[in-house]
Amino acid sequence: MTANSIETKDKILINGLKPLNGQVRISGAKNAVLKQIAASILIPHPVILKDVPALQDVYRMIDILHALGAKCEFDEKQEILKINCSTLSSSYAPFELVSKLRASFVILGPILARCGNAKVSLPGGCQIGTRRIDLHEKGLKSLGAHLEITHGYVEAHVPEGGLVGKELHLDIPSNGATENLMMAAVLAKGLTIIENAAKDPEIEDLANFLNCCGAKITGAGSHRIEIEGVTLNDLHSCEYTTLPDRIEAGTFIIAVLATGGKAIIDNVIPKHLTALLSKLEEMGAVITPIGDKSLEISSNGRLKATEISTVWYPGFPTDLQPQMMALLTKTDGVSILKENIYEDRFSHVEELVRMGADIQVNNHIAILKGVDKLTGAPVTGSDLRATAGLIIAGLAADGISEVRGLNHLDRGYNSFADKLSSLGADIKRIND
Ligand code: EPU
Question: Which of 86, 164, 202, 412 has its CA 20 to 30 A from that of 399?
Fold first, then answer.
């Protein structure tokens, strides 16, 4: 149990081996919307975000904005979040709030740019590996910020005259650092260039949201992002619809294949999932586009083993590695899965082995010998994607599985059990 998890005693019960069939709609992207909420700090007018999923991480981010003096109204049913940061009155984000979700650290750039100073807690522990912030720190200093890390907090202020645009080069294409720096640069004087920026669709979506509010950002979605600084007076209200969650879509696609089903996944942008889809086709999956934003998923029998290496976007996403591992446990032959982004994202391996999987781990490489069957068992997920992976394994296993760790699942999946149930899974969520 880490500081960034919300305790729940719920568990999910699955009676496996029921093929998933039907149609499911994917929600707005967690990793985009969280950054758009943070970016609203820059905007001294009301903004409206649409397609916002009711996730624990979204609620925690709203709590942080409230603590800063913003007004937020979340209509969960309509999935509309109204944010008004015209009333911002504080630049202090305490440990109790920031430690509940690591993504919240991206408030540092916008608070600093808007208020001229910021005191933001360091985010705290993480189950999947060290999550460093050196690139955030180095980049903000290059823009002229004074930064000190002391007693678990980053204390920062902007010198007289404000932040000044600069050419920045990231040692690695970190998502969080790209986002923090891009947001800080919106109100810097002159041109900021971020070289070796993360290219993920969520970065492009953040830039689109900021541009919709009057920022001047070009190149997001490529390795070179240019931000022409504007003034607070140039920023205005906007209504923006968040892009679909590619990781949720990938999770459902994998779940359909793991159960040998046939289903349509709606509200998906296939080009955001090229690495996954081409790998699945290589393994024998049948993926048929239906219009621009739906995919029909099925397979002709047992899938073949494969080799996968997680890399930065557009490579195979680390956030689908545990779900993919669940699928690979039952494929034909020997698969190799290399985790290159996080040093400790294999916590699900032991649990999968308890369900009958044959997996050997050597450092960051897992070798999987496909087995004929998995058997249901009580298992516990220790991070968000690991829990999703174990639920997929439960769907593909003979008998009953009990999956715990739903505090992690609730951070990032909207009504996961309900959506699976609507596809025909024999699944229910119960309170212990
Ligand atoms: N890193 C550094 N220095 C830095 C920043 C990052 O060395 O200053 C390293 C980290 O230690 C880590 C790697 O770079 O090993 C990835 O970090 P990145 O900054 O790209 O990740 P993030 O912004 O913290 C986002 C997603 C993660 C996703 C990663 C990689 C959000 C809220 N989180 O995290 O999503 O795994 O990018 O794609 O956007 C998830 O949704 O389950 C999740 C963990």
Answer: 412
Percent of the chain whose pLDDT exceeds 90? 93
Give all domains of the chain, ordered by start, each with its CATH number: 10-27+244-431 (3.65.10.10), 30-241 (3.65.10.10)
Cβ 401 vs Cβ 19: under 8 Å: no
Round to whole Å and give the CA distance between 86 and 81.
16
Helix (H) or strand (E) holding 285: strand 285-290
Report whether residue 332 contacts ligand 1, using a CB cutoff of 6 Å. Answer: no
Q: Does residue 196 line the site of ligand 1, with CB under 6 A?
A: no
Which residue do the tokens 């089903």 mark?
261
**Closest residue CA from atom 37 of ligand 1:** 175
Our answer on whether the CB atom of 132 is closer than 6 Å to any ligand 1 atom is: yes
The residue written with tokens 């189950």 in the block is 127
Ligand 1 atom with the shortest distance to the CA of 385: 42
Closest CA to 358 of 378, 384, 331, 323: 331
- Smallest Cα–Cα separation from 320: which of 357, 288, 345? 345
Is pLDDT at 319 greater than 60 in this prediction? Answer: yes
Query: What is the CA(17)–ligand 1 centre distance, in A?
Result: 34
pLDDT digits (tens, 9 = 90+) for 146-182: 999 999 999 999 999 999 999 999 999 999 999 999 9
327 with 284: CB under 8 angstroms? no
Q: For residue 107, what is the DSSP state?
A: G
6 — pLDDT class (breaks 50, 70, 90): low
In this predicted model, what pLDDT tens digit does every residue of 206-241 receive, in sequence order? Answer: 999 999 999 999 999 999 999 999 999 999 999 999
Taking the whole predicted model, whether its pTM rises above 0.85 is answered as yes
28 close to ligand 1 (CB < 6 Angstrom): no
Rounded to 5 degrees, what are φ and ψ at 322?
A: -65, -35
- Tell me the C-alpha to C-alpha distance, in Å, between residue 26 and each of 21, 246, 288, 322: 15, 8, 17, 19
* 387-414 core/surface letters (b: 16 or more CB in 10 A; e: else): bbbbbbbbbbbeeebbbbbbbbbbbbbb
Q: Do 284 and 310 touch, CB atoms closer than 8 A? A: no
Nearest CA to ligand 1 atom 36: 319
pLDDT reported for residue 129: 74
Lowest mean pLDDT among 20-34, 120-134, 185-199, 381-395: 120-134
pLDDT value at position 250?
98
| Ligand 1 atom 35, closest CA | 319
